[in-house]
């Protein structure tokens, strides 16, 4: 029975993972604050981040600052 549970867990993980990668308005864990929300993707310093609305706004501000100071 434990094995069946483990398999079920893995299947759930795969399904949620493909859902996170696939959907356009996807929900997930913010990489900055860890809050589960609808995430936005932002590119910063050559890396992509999936952030909640609040953190997205902060990073967007940082990006602007970075462009000002070069
Ligand atoms: Zn956040």
Descriptive overview:
This protein is of the alpha+beta class and 70 residues long. The chain has a domain of 46 residues. It has two helices and four strands; from the N terminus they run αββββα. β3 and β4 form a beta hairpin. The chain is elongated, with a radius of gyration of 16 Å. The protein binds zinc ion. Zinc ion (ZN) binds next to α2.
Q: What's the alpha carbon Rg, rounded to whole Å?
A: 16 Å
Bound molecules: zinc ion
Termini distance? 58 Å
The major β-sheet equals: 2 strands, antiparallel
Portion of residues in beta strands equals 15-25%
* Poorly predicted segments: none
Q: What is the succession of H and E elements?
A: HEEEEH
Shape: elongated
For the largest sheet, list the strands in their spatial order.
1-2
- Number of strand segments: 4
State the secondary-structure class. alpha+beta
Q: Count of helical segments? A: 2
Mean of all residue-level pLDDT scores:
84
The percentage helix is 40-55%
Helices and strands in order:
Blueprint: H1 2-22, E1 27-29, E2 36-38, E3 40-44, E4 47-51, H2 53-69
Antiparallel strand pairs: 1-2, 3-4
Zinc ion (ZN) binds next to helix 2.
